[in-house]
Design goal:
Residues 72-81 have a biased composition (Acidic residues). Residues 1-85, 305-324 are annotated as: Disordered. Pfam families: Macro (PF01661). This is BZ3500_MvSof-1268-A1-R1_Chr4-2g06910 protein. Residues 51-71, 315-324 have a biased composition (Basic and acidic residues). This protein has helices spanning 92-97, 116-121, 150-159, 161-167, 204-224, 244-261, 290-294, 302-305, and strands at 3-4, 122-126, 136-141, 178-182, 190-195, 229-232, 282-287. Helix 5 (204-224) crosses helix 6 (244-261). The chain has a 7-stranded mixed β-sheet. It has a single domain (3-37, 51-57, 85-268, 291-312), classed as Leucine Aminopeptidase, subunit E, domain 1. It has 8 helices and 7 strands. It is globular, with a radius of gyration of 19 Å. Strand 6, helix 6 and strand 7 form a beta-alpha-beta unit. The protein is 24% helix and 10% strand. The model is unreliable at 5-31, 33-76 and 290-295 (pLDDT under 50). It is an alpha/beta fold.
Amino acid sequence: MTTASTSSSSTKRSQTDDVGQTPAEPLESIAPTDSHAAAETADKPSASKVAKVDKHPEHEATEEKQDGLHVEDEDEDEDDSNAIAPSQIANLTKLYEDGILEVVNDGETVHHPCNATHNKIISLWQGDITHLKVDAIVNAANNSLLGGGGVDGAIHRAAGPSLLKECRPLKGCETGRTKITKGHRLPSKHVLHTVGPIYSRNDRQESEELLRGCYKTCLALVKEHALTSVAFSGISTGVYGYPLSEAAQVALDEVRQFLDNDEYGSKANLSPLRPRIAQIKHIVFTNFRQIDVDQCKHLRHVPDYFPPAPSEVQDESKEPEEGA
């Protein structure tokens, strides 16, 4: 079992195979939403369902050992007929080009230059994360890793009892850290179980460092296991009380830093003098509940971290062509 970790004043070092991470500078999750709120009543997703900003907005059973994650999968007879591939979900480029995602600031809050490659990697989606056919989905778990309410419970139910069987020997997970398991009956190959902080207004810095640790350690495991697609659910944005706007900025900032600076992102692959390495292709931020889509003012932060390229922005000053 491989784990990943981040340093924090309130967390202790655990297993020696943890990947140490240093909290970065401050973020609102596109946020994947609600890790710990009720998930059972969500509508069945469709391939075209996307977070409406304008409204405001393989897994295959195998006996082969892979990355040390092998367990017996007596219940891995999942039906992928309702699975959604990341290629079916609109990425930022598409959302900008269609005018669904708009820049609503004056440019003063933009933290990063535009990067068309990044915008093709990032997607926003509203629906049930357990239907996504990606290399890994992120489960906003509790410290026990034995399942709970909301998305955590939904993931355990969809994955089947063998997920719980694999989680029991892990002996839980500390806040700000992540552990990886197989996906079992899920369409996703793996599950990244990360434990977000309970938000404290009295110690916002510590809450932020722990939340950043969740994203850092998830992305570290994505790189370690050579995963090319990952979907994030909301971390700490449900009953754990993390303000959605602030959580979204953390998510956006950590993912942007990963894509800009990590060799697993696109930057290192620009040099023709070195062999091309495996590379992340899809990062999906999910919203589970309709209320989150209807109230997603936090999406205004997306252009601050992933601004549109000039070719992605609609020119409203242009007169429509005759006969168009």
